[in-house]
Hints:
- It is a single chain.
- By secondary structure, the chain is of the alpha/beta class.
- It has ten helices and eight strands.
- It has helices at about 20-25, 45-50, 70-80, 105-120, 135-145, 160-165, 185-190, 220-230, 235-250, 255, and strands spanning about 1-5, 30-35, 55-60, 85-95, 125-130, 150, 170-175, 195-200.
Amino acid sequence: MLIDTHCHFDFPPFSDDIALSIECYQQAGIDKIIVPAVSVDRFANIIELANTHSSIYYALGLHPIYTHHQQDLDYLNSELALNRSKLVAIGEIGIDGYIDGADIDQQIYFFSAQLDLAKQYHLPVILHSRRSHPLLYKILKNMKLTDSGVIHGFSGSYEEAMQFIRLGFFIGVGGVISYERAKKTRNAISKIPLSAIVFETDAPDMPLSGHQGQPNRPENIQSIANYLIALRTESQTTIFEQVALNTLNLFPKMAIN
């Protein structure tokens, strides 16, 4: 079983032809995808996608680079309370220190509030972290979540990865490992426990090496898996089976729905 744990399927080019886009990833052997939200105005469309298509699951959350208001948190809370069967996580949430002029204090406020909701509703979290690993780690360590989560689009060192893994978090492995220049991250992914890895694309963003300027797609999970196999010592079968098990352990609703 191959699962893309992070695909913005509600954006173009997928939204231009949903049926064809689903056919493409299924023909490539991708069984399921998770579509994380970035803002409340996208919640309804994402929920409809999941309700309409059996291979699509979703997460609801407030992305740190978007502007949010208190009523957005209230709306998120009301949606989480409905406990729909295909809602598998809270996300995409986190801290972004890359954007010029980012209001980090405001990001921390919304991030912490959403972590509180994750504890309240016993849901895992899908975590955005750009130039913010130390701060994100500090917040997560203090929060002591009852459920796990994934560091999405991980691009960091082995030491940083292991800090999150020791807290019980998974590492989202995507197109970063296709770039030879990403030596620090490739080294980290080659050494961390296989039991801490899940696959993701972040499609249509984060294209693989050689495909810059083109939209990324969930079917590229196959290529990401091949890059991972080349970096690891385990067999292809072991890697595929363990990563699938990791994904279902992290998002248990996907195993029963």
